[in-house]
Write a structure and sequence with these properties.
It is a single chain. This protein has eight helices and five strands. It is an alpha+beta fold and about 230 residues long. It folds into two domains: about 170 residues, Rossmann fold (3-Layer(aba) Sandwich); about 45 residues. A five-stranded antiparallel beta sheet has the order 2-1-3-4-5, covered by helices on one side. Strand 3 and strand 4 form a beta hairpin. Helix 4 packs across helix 5. It is rod-shaped and about 115 Å long.
């Protein structure tokens, strides 16, 4: 279980050092609404949370218009498994997830709390806007796409369906993935090619086989005559 206690848009979009403080979990209702006028930054806030959870885009980051990419930074304090942890996400470098003291964290520190949801899944389920709702409706009607898949998973009680499908895709790619040379089938084809070449090197035509049999028979007859 993961609960957002604070969200910090340290340098993100048009925000600088902007904190949303939701406080510690109360005993009663725990529901918060962030509201504002058009262009106030509601979508930017939502995108800031997504960057924290899943990382910044590798290129063409749309929220670096005020702050340079190297300076982009979002953070949060979260209640996880009965404890409170601080996270910071930066945009540059290989390791982009840090704790509150700047120490590098593995991605699993957050991903294990997301129940197997990909960023696309999270957007479709929890970050609804007009475009997402319209696209999701089409996917539901046609029983395809991430939204249709997630609804099927919920109806069937398969909460980990996304993880299962991703695992199956990786296993399928390991068996066959187009022109790559590292899959199981690609390696078997290479082994077959080597065996075919070996067979050709030892292959004898029918005429040559007949000639050699006659030569062997003649040699045997000569040997028998010599020993008689």
């Amino acid at each position: 279980m993961m609960r957002l206690q604070t969200l910090d848009l340290i340098r993100f979009g048009h925000f600088t050092d902007r904190r949303f403080d939701f406080g510690a979990k109360p005993k009663g209702a725990d529901f918060h609404i962030i509201y504002g006028r058009n262009e106030a930054g509601k979508t930017t806030t939502m995108e800031g949370l997504l960057r924290l959870l899943y990382g910044f885009r590798p290129r063409n980051e749309p929220y670096e218009f005020r702050h340079q990419r190297a300076n982009l930074r979002v953070g949060a304090t979260m209640e996880i498994a009965g404890g409170v942890r601080s996270f910071v996400r930066i945009a540059s470098g290989r390791a982009t997830l840090l704790d509150g003291n700047g120490a590098v964290l593995p991605e699993t520190a957050l991903s294990q709390c997301l129940g197997g949801l990909t960023e696309s899944d999270y957007r479709n389920l929890l970050c609804l806007d007009d475009a997402t709702i319209e696209r999701g409706g089409e996917e539901i009607v046609q029983a395809r796409g991430d939204t249709g898949r997630l609804l099927f998973a919920a109806a069937a009680g398969l909460s980990d369906l996304s993880h299962i499908l991703d695992t199956l895709r990786r296993e399928a790619d390991a068996i066959w993935a187009g022109r790559t040379t590292t899959t199981v089938i690609a390696k078997l084809r290479q082994e077959l090619k080597v065996l075919d070449e070996e067979i050709r090197r030892h292959e004898v035509s029918a005429n040559e086989w007949t000639t050699r049999r006659k030569a062997a028979a003649a040699a045997a007859a000569t040997e028998a005559a010599a020993l008689a």
